[in-house]
Specification:
Two copies of one chain form a homodimer. Chain A is an alpha+beta fold. Chain A has a single domain, classed as Electron Transport, Fmn-binding Protein, Chain A (Pnp Oxidase, Chain A, Roll). Helix content of chain A is 23%, strand content 36%. Chain A has seven helices and eleven strands. In chain A, strands 1, 2, 3, 4, 5, 6, 7, 8, 9 and 10 form a ten-stranded antiparallel sheet that branches. In chain A, β4 and β5 form a beta hairpin. Chain A is globular, with a radius of gyration of 21 Å. In chain A, 44% of the residues are buried.
Chain lengths: 214, 214
């Protein structure tokens, strides 16, 4: 079960809350980027960044463009949000238009991963999420690169998942009036045809871990 | 030109910064949801929400699940981020793997839109973004709905845009080694086939503003 701290208990539309941990894992595993929120000089800052999950640990690249992250000498309060948009909900009234989505919101303290073995594991988890198969296919991280990169970890202890996955929710009078179309326009994220690098030497075929990605 | 306050000046990968206002508008117009960051009890909170743009004003639904937004008696410091993921960049080394993306980060104070005419305009802008054509097709907002909804506005005065739109950036030694495939796997957001509501009366065809959406 997911935690029920005050800030993970939904204040409205409680019926959209999903409280099993497998739902959290599923949203995180399907998403490609997260939005990482921190407080900088008292103001919010939200940056997109890659991530990866292993069990109930989320790994984040420490070099996300926020100097606050890179220079954090102590653990940093973060909110990490992953949103999967599944559809646009067209209702019979403008007011009931909505979106179908699955979102995960995680609160916690992001900690720099210092131990070399744990850090290398974090890099593998990040790579496996961004580009499954690349850890085995591409050139491994060398000592210089390893020293330059930073990895943060975040426990998935305090998290909430919210899901809307249904058709329009119209008012009885709008159903009676029957004056507008209602339904869902699905939204999906898809991969296109791989584009080999212009400097790739002849003879390379696109490897299976790229062509087979879904 | 976009502003160059300290917090919109990129601390790293400066070459990814795009400084013309049309690039900001293009990212905002193509995105479907934003991630809205606020500070609540000193900690960051990031929530997905719909938005719409008119000129250099961004409109947000005030009822996004964050009670902090609904009860804000004064202007609220926010960071709004919209990210379009365009591709996974497979490099010859694990370390140079990356993503192609376009992202916009906006800082400012979200203000409740109180004037009825301005608020109705904000609702139209939000609807036009979420579901173009629905403002004309669906039943208009009635007085009760209008009173219950809240709209926030945010000036696009302080914003930055970051773009990566290129192939792998590999090390010379990895190019020489020629030991891994390199290229980009495009990522796109697409609409599927419209799914009429199960309670839709027979005879309705999917209207053009839904079928024609791209």
């Amino acid at each position: 079960m997911l935690s029920t701290t005050p800030r993970t208990t939904l204040g409205r539309k409680k019926h959209r809350a999903v409280t099993d941990r497998s739902a959290l894992h599923a949203v995180l595993d399907e998403g490609l980027i997260c939005h990482l929120g921190i407080v900088r000089d008292g103001a919010p800052l939200v940056l997109p960044t890659g991530y990866g999950r292993d069990g109930d640990t989320l790994y984040l690249h420490g070099s996300t463009g926020a100097s606050s992250l890179r220079t954090a000498s102590r653990d940093l309060d973060v909110c990490v949000t992953v949103t999967l948009l599944d559809g646009i909900v067209y209702s019979r009234s403008v007011n009931n238009h909505s979106m179908n989505y699955r979102s995960a919101v995680i609160f916690g303290k992001a900690k720099p991963v210092v131990d070399p073995e744990a850090k290398m594991h974090g890099l593998k988890v990040l790579t496996d999420h961004l580009a499954p198969g690349s850890w085995e296919h591409a050139r491994e991280v060398n000592a210089k690169e390893f020293a330059a990169v930073s990895v943060l970890s975040l426990d998935l202890a305090e998290a909430s998942v919210k899901v809307r996955a249904e058709g329009p929710d119209d008012e009885p009078e709008d159903l009676d009036a029957d004056a507008a179309w209602a339904g869902v326009l699905p939204v999906r994220t898809v991969f296109g045809t791989p584009e080999p690098s212009t400097d790739l030497s002849p003879g390379w075929q696109v490897p299976a871990h790229v062509t087979g990605r879904e």
